Amino acid sequence: MPYSHGVPSSVHGSPVTGRDDKPSPSPAGTGPPAPVLPDYSGACLSNLVPALLGADRPSWIPEPLRSADQVVLLVVDGLGWEQLRTRVELAPTMATAAGFDTPITSVAPTTTACALTSITTGQPPASHGMLGYRLATEDGRVLNTLRWVVGTGREQDARVHCPAARVQRCAPFPGALRPVPVVSHAEFGVTGFTAAHLGDAPLYGYRTPSGIPVEIRHLVAEGEPFVYAYYDGVDKVAHAHGLGAHFDAELVAADRLVADIVKVLPSGAVLAVTADHGQVEVGPRVEVLGRAVMAGVRFLSGEGRFRWLHAVPGATDDLVDAAGALHASTTWVRRRDQIVDEGWLGGSLDAELLGRLGDVVLAPYEPIAFLDPADTGETRLAGRHGSLTSAEMLVPLLALRRDDNIEP
Q1: What contacts 7, CB < 8 A, 6 or more positions away?
Q2: How much is the average pLDDT of 76-86?
Q3: How far is CA 101 from the centre of its chain?
Q4: Residue 12 above 50 pLDDT?
Q5: How many other CB atoms are there within 10 angstroms of residue 406's CB atom?
Q6: What would the DSSP string read from start to end of 179-246?
Q7: Lateral strand order in the sheet of 134-136
Q8: Pairing of the two strands 226-231 and 182-185
Q9: How far is CA 343 from CA 6, 36, 77, 348, 363, in A?
């Protein structure tokens, strides 16, 4: 299927059907598919918060949100548009929402640390610098951005070694006239990643999902014009179980959560629902990089579906050739400067941010992942994300009002 910036050309035509959550292999002789690039100039996660906080909301924002007096933005981690669109019967509330048939794009890589930071800061990855799950540091170690630890084996808390304000310097919620309240899991409040992508935003923590609408009801009743909420259940289930029965059951629960939130909204308030990325079922299809590739590698970073190879000095050309020879039939193999030039990250990077990346990236378009022996926990993940397939890149942007969608 041909792709423009982000959205498949057939999205606005006949509905997508079927339940195949795995990317289709390229027909013989046609070469690799084109990556689905983020639409950094338009309907992209990096532009969502500025659009919702601005006075003139662009046309890609669903109509109910353009005139809303109050907006609640719910980010459902891992709820890709393709996975939602092919499970309409499991999500009757979200299926009624404005915007259901038209996705927007995530950012690259399609991973939580990168995408959530783009949402909250309104900036592309090239600007905010949270360029993946595991980033190289200035001293040659690797920072796990979600756990905020460095090293392997005996990992160290990185909040002192890598202060959040130094790693990510863009202010969250640009354009907000007052602090934006955040409804998120209580245990996230003290983490380095929370400090990096949410800054000093006031946190209203919940212990179980039932607490999310409770906190939102309180905040909108107090007159908050914009509330940011985050729910991670879909992503957790996809990682643990893939995209089968457990995923379907969690989608039912997430749809019920959306309905519960809509029921507590007053007149004039609108719920926006989006996600940071979609999912691909990988399961046991995890590949170990062979000797021909690893001979030119100092260490690895990134994630299984956006694997950075840090080259031995002077070995980048040989590394590209070796990786391409072995993996071009399943994977986009790119030099660092190529993905910058092709617009994957949303602009040029300064020297410090470039140093966080490897020299060569492996981003599979087939349902596989590449192992980093220093991060063996990834081998237990069934559902994955990180690359630039439509299953990972396309995310929903829905708008729901109580009066239009949910019975009181």
Answers
A1: 39, 43, 102, 103, 104, 105, 394
A2: 98
A3: 19
A4: no
A5: 19
A6: PPPEEEEGGGTT-HHHHHHHTTPPEEEESSTTHHHHHHHHHHHTT-SEEEEEE-HHHHHHHHH-SSHH
A7: 134-136, 142-144, 149-150, 156-157
A8: parallel
A9: 12, 11, 24, 8, 15
Q: How confident is the model at residue 361 (pLDDT cuts 50, 70, 90)?
A: very high
Which residues are 52's β-sheet partners?
none
| Phi, psi for residue 118 in degrees, rounded to 5 | -65, -40
What domains appear along the chain, each with residue ranges and CATH number?
45-281+388-403 (3.40.720.10), 286-382 (3.30.1360.180)
Q: What is the mean pLDDT of residues 269-275?
A: 98
What is the identity of the amino acid at 153?
G
Q: Rounded to 5 degrees, what are φ and ψ at 401?
A: -120, 145
Tokens 């457990």 belong to residue: 246
DSSP 16: P
List, in sequence order, every residue forming a beta bridge with 311; answer none if it has no partner: 297
- To the nearest whole number, what is the mean pLDDT of the chain? 91
CA angle 298, 299, 300 (to 5 degrees): 140
Least confident interval from 144-153, 322-331, 341-350: 144-153
Secondary structure in 3-state letters for 65-107: HHCCCEEEEEEECCCCHHHHHCCHHHCHHHHCCECCCCCEECC
CA distances (Å), 377 to each of 11, 239, 248, in order? Answer: 36, 11, 24
Residue 281 main-chain phi, psi, to 5 deg: -80, 115
Give the range among 137-146, 251-260, 386-395 with minimum mean pLDDT: 137-146
What's the number of CA atoms in the CB half-sphere (13 Å) around residue 333?
18
Residue 88, number of CB atoms within 10 A of its CB:
14
Q: Distance between CA 276 and CA 167 in Å, rounded?
A: 20
